[in-house]
C-alpha cells in the first residue's frame, strides 16, 4: 500500500498536474501551428514560387516495384516541419519574454521596510540611552 500512496501523492502534486496540462496544451498548440503552416502559410509561398505544394516536394530514390512502395526523400514535409518549429519556438520565446518582464516588474516593485513595533521602538531607545551613558567621561 506504501507505493500506491506515494504514487498518489506524486501524481496530485501541483507541479505534475501543471506539467500534464502544459503537455496537453502544447500538443494542441502544435497541431494548430502545423495546420497554420500547412494550410495558411505554405500555399501562398508555394504559389509565389510557381504553384508548388511543399508537401509534395520529394526525391524518389527507388521507384515502386510490385508490392514494394517507392523509397522517397520527402524534403518538402521537412521544410514544413522546420517552419512549424520556428513558429513554435518564436511563440515560446515571446511567452518566456513576457513572463520574465512580469517577474522583473515584480522584483523592482519597492517594498516598504517593516514598521517596528512599540516594543522594538522602546528597546531601541533604551539601547541608545545605554550607549549615551557608557560614552560619558
Automatic annotation (TrEMBL):
Pfam family, one: MscL
Signal peptide: none
InterPro entries: Mechanosensitive_channel_CS (IPR019823), MS_channel (IPR001185), MSC/AndL (IPR037673), MscL_channel (IPR036019)
Transmembrane segments: 16-37, 78-96
Subcellular location: Cell inner membrane; Cell membrane
Highest taxon above the source species: Bacteria
Membrane topology, as annotated: Multi-pass membrane protein
Keywords from the named record: Cell inner membrane, Cell membrane, Ion channel, Ion transport, Membrane, Transmembrane, Transmembrane helix, Transport
Tagged with keyword Lipoprotein: no
Presence of the UniProt keyword Lyase in the record: no
CC terms in the record's Gene Ontology section: plasma membrane
MF GO annotations: mechanosensitive monoatomic ion channel activity
Principal cellular location given in the protein's record: membrane
Function of the protein: Channel that opens in response to stretch forces in the membrane lipid bilayer. May participate in the regulation of osmotic pressure changes within the cell.
Listed PANTHER family: LARGE-CONDUCTANCE MECHANOSENSITIVE CHANNEL (PTHR30266:SF2), MECHANOSENSITIVE CHANNEL MSCL (PTHR30266)
NCBIfam families linked: mscL, PRK00567.1-4
HAMAP family registered for this protein in UniProt: MscL
Assembly behavior: Homopentamer.
Family to which this protein belongs: Belongs to the MscL family.
Protein name listed in UniProt: Large-conductance mechanosensitive channel
Species this protein is from: Pseudomonas saponiphila
Amino acid at each position: 500500500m506504501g507505493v500506491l500512496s506515494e504514487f498518489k501523492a506524486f501524481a496530485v502534486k501541483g507541479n505534475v498536474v501543471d506539467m500534464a496540462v502544459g503537455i496537453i496544451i502544447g500538443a494542441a498548440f502544435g497541431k494548430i501551428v502545423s495546420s497554420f503552416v500547412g494550410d495558411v502559410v505554405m500555399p501562398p509561398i508555394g504559389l509565389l514560387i510557381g504553384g508548388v505544394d511543399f508537401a509534395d516536394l520529394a526525391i524518389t530514390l527507388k521507384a515502386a516495384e510490385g508490392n514494394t512502395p517507392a523509397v522517397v526523400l520527402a524534403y518538402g514535409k521537412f521544410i514544413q516541419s522546420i517552419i512549424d518549429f520556428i513558429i513554435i519556438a518564436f511563440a515560446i520565446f515571446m511567452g518566456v519574454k513576457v513572463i520574465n518582464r512580469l517577474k522583473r516588474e515584480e522584483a523592482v516593485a519597492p517594498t516598504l521596510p517593516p514598521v517596528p513595533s512599540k516594543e522594538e521602538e522602546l528597546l531601541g531607545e533604551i539601547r541608545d540611552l545605554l550607549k549615551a551613558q557608557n560614552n560619558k567621561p
